[in-house]
Design brief:
Bound molecules: L-homoserine
Number of helices: 14
CATH architecture of the largest domain: 2-Layer Sandwich
Helix content: 25-40%
Distance between the termini: 50 Å
Shape: elongated
Number of domains: 3
Largest sheet: 12 strands, mixed
Structural class: alpha/beta
Radius of gyration: 23 Å
Number of strands: 18
CATH class of the largest domain: Alpha Beta
CATH superfamily of the largest domain: Dihydrodipicolinate Reductase, domain 2
Strand content: 25-35%
Amino acid sequence: MLKVGIIGVGTVGTSVVNILKDNADIISARAGIDIVVKSGVVKNLSKERGLDITLTDNVDDILNDDEIDVVVELMGGVEDAFEIVKKALRSGKAVVTANKALLAYHRYELEEIAQDIAFEYEASVAGGIPIINALRDGLSANHIQSIMGIMNGTCNYMMTKMANDGVAYDAILKEAQELGYAEADPTFDVGGFDAAHKLLILASIAYGIDAKPEDILIEGIDKVTQDDISFAKEFGYAIKLLGIAKKDADEVELRVHACLIKKDQMIAKIDGVMNGISVVGDKVGETLYYGPGAGGDATASAVVANIIDIARSGKSRPMLGFDKPMEGELKLKPIDEISSKYYLRINVSDRTGVLAKISKIFEDNNISIETMLQRPASQESANLLISTHTALEKDIQNMIKKIAALDFVNSTPVMIRIV
Ligand code: HSE
C-alpha cells in the first residue's frame, strides 16, 4: 500500500482524497498497488470538510511520519512551500505538487535536491491537461519550435464574457472568483503572473531555459476595454491572454500578454475557463492540447495521475526533461528585441491636424501603419485604433512614450500585440 500525506487540503486536496476513494478500483489496477491518503495538513482544524482522513495543523506530522511515502504539496505560495518540499525530499519522500509559483522560482534547485527521488508537477500547468507529460515524454524526440497557449482559465473566462456578453470587467472577475477559478490573489490571474509561472515551467522542459518571472515580458488583461473588443471584432480577431515561447536560432523569447489573434486560429476558438496549448515540434509539426485548466477535480486528476506514476515506478524521470545540459545552450531573447505586430488605442482631443501629427510620429519611429479607425469617445475626444506592420518592441515602447507626452493625447496609449 502506498501512503499519501497532503499539505493543504482545500478545493484540490479534497478532490484528491475523493478521487482516490471514488476511483480506487481503477487506480489500484493501474498502479498495481492500493493508494490511500493517510493524513492532511490544514490551517483551520475546526472547519468541517467531510473527509475520513486524519487532519492536523502541524506539517511535521506528515514530514516525520515514516509511513508516508508521497507528500502532495497543495499549500501554494513560494518560500514556505519551498522549505517544506525540500524537507520532504531530504527525508526521502516522493513529492507531487500543483504549485506553479514555487516551480517558477525554484525548479532547478528542486531538481538538484530531488536527484533520484520522484518529484512530479503535472497539475502545475493547465490543470487537468497532461501537458507536462506530453512535452517531457511524448514530444521528447523533437526540437520544440514554439509553445503558444491559453494558460489561465480566469482570464480566458473574462475575455470570453467581455466579448460575448459585453459584461464589465469587475463583474466578471467577481464571477470567476465565485466559481473558484481565480487565484487567492486574483492579480496573479489578471496581471499575467499565473500564466507566466506556467510558461516558465514549460520553457524549462522544452528549452532548458532557467528564467525567472522578472526576466520575461509579463502583462495582463487589465487594460482591455470594450473599445478594443469592438476593434477586434471588426478586423476578425479575438482577444486572449497568451503565454508564448518561441525559438529563433539560438534564442528563445518568452512572453505573456493580451493578444489579438485571428478568429480562425484554433487557439482563438478556445472559450470560457478552458485552457488550450499549441506545441510545434520540428518533427511532429503542430500538436494541440485542450481541456480544463482550473477547478478541483480537473486539477486533482493530474495530481492523482502523478501519484499513480510514482506507485508504478517509484523513480523520477529527469524532473525537467533533460538528463544533461544540451550543447550550445539556448539563451533568453532580450525583451527589446522581440518583434510583433501591434494594435494601439490612443485617446486624443479631436482637433485639426492631430492625425497628421500622430502618423508623423509613427514614421519617425520606423513603424508602418496597417489599419486605422477613428471613433468618437466624447464631445471633444476620439479614440484612434491603429494596427501596425511588424515592428520591434523597443521602437513601439519608445513611440508610446513620445505619444503619451503630446498635449493633445489624453492618456497613455493602450497597446495589444497581434499574433
Ligand atoms: N487561477 C488559475 C486559472 C487556476 O485561472 O487558470 C489554475 O492554475
